[in-house]
């Protein structure tokens, strides 16, 4: 089901001019301290005592409360425990965290020192330090029962010491939450930077680092940064030497598929100590959309190449998964490694999937896949599987 993580609000009375962050609740009996950082969902209760930071309605009605808003229909998914940022002047709401979602990610910067040809979120040069400030305010409102969080950019390593401060806050407020840090790995080529990360002693941290070829020039071309390959490899080695868990990610497209088996062999020979390898389908957003004609490769055309790479890694006992691929475009051997990996808010299924016996096991599509999808998409039966 596709969700809009940003939407419109309609004020139902007077509003404050300042933006604010609040946790949603349907408990009108909260104490005064909790009310000041909570927004009351009026659709869930008939009582509206004073003192809440905001009041959210799903229909238009007069309100005597300050900062009372009507939610747009596409925000009806919001529920207790979710955390939102409200801009009363612009009449906008942005969802920062969903209590019951397995796909929460924290965007910490849009700056990056790579310029990948298929980047789904092209980097920006503007100062966006406010993103971390916002997260530091929001994190104490997250449920301590959160199973996992993604940390993404841009390149989080460009935050420097602020990255370690953010991770420490997450560690202390959410001691049972796994963190999946997406990084190009280049900052960790600095041994001291890697030591600072390891010194946090986070209980469950995995750093996911992309590697696109066993040949330096090919990797550097994909990321559009000279010398990036050497820094990425050094970053992986530094982190693993310090006991930090590392995942290698490979996005598959026309510029990476030809040498995918050779890259798998390189990992099996030289980086077999990594904790996981993810072989990933392309998300058709950002630069991937701009460069679509140069990048698109139909998964049905590379299914044998993908199987060869998977077999190399599997024989070397390297833990691996195949992300962002539909089961019907994979060989039977590769299907066992396929995972439902697309974030729930941008996950969809094609019309052909309606009668598929394996739909519940299949990861489906990115919403952007409407631009182009494999010619081999079909409904499967239990017999053909």
Layout: helices, strands, pairs:
Elements: E1 6-11, E2 20-25, H1 32-35, E3 38-41, E4 54-57, E5 68-71, E6 83-87, E7 92-97, E8 105-107, H2 130-138, E9 148-152, H3 161-173, E10 178-182, H4 191-198, E11 205-210, H5 216-223, H6 228-241, E12 245-251, H7 260-270, E13 276-280, H8 287-290, H9 292-295, H10 303-315, E14 320-323, H11 332-335, E15 347-348, E16 365-366
Helix pairs in contact: 7-10
How many discrete domains? 2
| Overall shape | globular
Mean pLDDT across all residues, rounded?
A: 95
Biggest β-sheet, characterized? Answer: 7 strands, mixed, barrel
Question: What kind of assembly state do the chains in view correspond to?
Answer: single chain
CATH H level of the largest domain: which superfamily?
Answer: Aldolase class I
User: Uncertain runs with pLDDT below 50, 5 residues or more?
Assistant: none
By secondary-structure content and strand pairing, the structural class works out as alpha/beta
User: How much strand content do the residues show?
Assistant: 15-25%
Radius of gyration: 23 Å
């Amino acid at each position: 089901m596709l969700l809009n993580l940003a939407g419109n609000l309609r004020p139902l009375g007077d509003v404050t001019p300042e933006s604010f962050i609040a946790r949603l609740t349907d408990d009108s009996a909260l104490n005064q301290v909790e009310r000041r950082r909570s927004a009351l969902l009026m659709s869930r209760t008939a009582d509206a005592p004073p003192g809440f930071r905001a009041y959210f309605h799903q229909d238009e009605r007069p309100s005597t409360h300050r900062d009372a808003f009507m939610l747009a229909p596409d925000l009806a998914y919001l529920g207790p425990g979710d955390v939102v940022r409200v801009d009363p002047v612009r009449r906008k709401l942005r969802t920062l965290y969903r209590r019951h979602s397995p796909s929460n990610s924290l965007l910490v910067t849009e700056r990056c020192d790579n310029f990948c040809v298929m980047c789904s979120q092209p980097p920006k040069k503007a100062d966006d330090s406010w993103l971390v400030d916002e997260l530091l305010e929001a994190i104490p409102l997250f449920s301590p029962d959160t199973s996992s969080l993604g940390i993404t950019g841009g390149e989080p390593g460009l935050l420097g010491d602020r990255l370690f401060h953010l991770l420490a806050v997450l560690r202390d407020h959410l001691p049972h939450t796994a963190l999946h840090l997406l990084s190009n790995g280049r900052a960790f080529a600095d041994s001291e930077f890697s030591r600072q990360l390891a010194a946090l002693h986070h209980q469950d941290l995995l750093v996911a680092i992309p590697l696109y070829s066993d040949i330096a020039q090919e990797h550097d071309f994909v990321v559009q940064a000279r010398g990036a390959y050497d820094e990425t490899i050094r970053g992986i080695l530094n982190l693993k030497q310090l006991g930090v868990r590392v995942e290698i990610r490979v996005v598959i497209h026309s510029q990476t598929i030809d040498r995918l088996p050779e890259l798998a062999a390189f990992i099996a020979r030289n980086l077999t100590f990594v904790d996981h390898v993810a072989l990933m389908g392309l998300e058709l957003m950002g630069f991937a959309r701009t460069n679509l004609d140069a990048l698109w490769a139909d998964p049905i055309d590379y299914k044998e190449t993908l199987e060869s790479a998977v077999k190399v890694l599997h024989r070397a006992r390297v833990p691996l998964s195949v992300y962002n691929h539909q089961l019907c475009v994979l060989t039977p051997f590769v299907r066992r490694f396929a995972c439902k990996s697309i974030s729930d808010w941008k996950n969809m299924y094609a019309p052909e999937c309606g009668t598929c016996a394996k739909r519940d096991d299949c990861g489906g599509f990115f919403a952007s896949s409407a631009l182009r999808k494999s010619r081999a998409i079909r409904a499967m039966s239990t017999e053909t599987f």
